[in-house]
Amino acid sequence: MTALRVVDLEAGYEPGLPIVRGTSLAVEPNEIVAVLGPNGAGKSTLIKAIAGLVPVSAGKVLLHDRDITGRAAHHLAHEGLGFVPQTENVFVNLSIEDNLDLAASILKVPKKQRLRDLYDLFPDLARQRRLLAGRLSGGQRQMLAVARALVGEPKVLMLDEPSAGLSPKLVGIVFEKLLDVRATGVTIVLVEQNVKAALAIADRGAVLVEGSTRIVGTARDLAGDPQVAALYLGQHRGGS
Ligand SMILES: Nc1ncnc2c1ncn2[C@@H]1O[C@H](COP(=O)(O)OP(=O)(O)OP(=O)(O)O)[C@@H](O)[C@H]1O
């Protein structure tokens, strides 16, 4: 069963002005898929539409064959879909522990065991659990955002530009952690401008151009394809 399937999706911020225009994508269980493409291609809009944060005007989104098209974001956490927004993804005035506690309360998951599991996965967060999230470094804050999204034990985790604002070293550390998350059985979809880093951890990549999927291939093929690089990936930040 496909973990996440997007079929001919159309979505946008205003009626009659779709930004995502007929995008299709299938993500298999336990895969890491990177959604790439030039600035303004609609990558963030696509992931937000899947996450129930941007109105969908046509097409379908299936999570493990269940139709979740247009389901509001707060329902999707209960359906097994986690989402890490690009910004404002933690409560800066709360401690690490309170951020995770709050997520557990909202989702009504057994707090103690789940937080213990997450602290095992993120030992740096465990060590600093009483620290305010606003005092964390960029990389640690991103780890907390990922941990928050994992509180509800999603089967599929989507991340909007997890490398944004991070130094290359921290990108490496955060992306390594995503491999650990995948090893726990989670399927991952990430939108990235940092093509090199994303393809280094992804199994496959999907190149979005003007709101539709133009190329889908293995990460290895995409990374080595000069035409792909020249046509679509030339404008990205952070790496050649
Ligand atoms: N909240 C919004 N309201 C209206 N239009 C928006 C909004 N957010 C994005 N857009 C528009 O949607 C288009 C696609 O933006 P989107 O952020 O999805 O692209 P992207 O591929 O993620 O690009 P980038 O990599 O630069 O973030 C752009 O033309 C943008 O101006």
UniProtKB/TrEMBL annotation:
One of its GO terms (molecular function) is ATP binding. GO terms for biological process: L-amino acid transport. Residues 4-235 form the ABC transporter domain. This is Branched-chain amino acid transport system ATP-binding protein. InterPro entries: AAA+_ATPase, ABC_transporter-like_ATP-bd, ABC_transporter-like_CS, BCAA_Transport_ATP-bd_LivF, P-loop_NTPase. Belongs to the ABC transporter superfamily. The keyword 4Fe-4S does not apply. Coiled coil: none annotated. It comes from the Bacteria. Gene3D superfamilies: P-loop containing nucleotide triphosphate hydrolases. Keywords: Amino-acid transport, ATP-binding, Nucleotide-binding, Transport. Pfam families: ABC_tran.
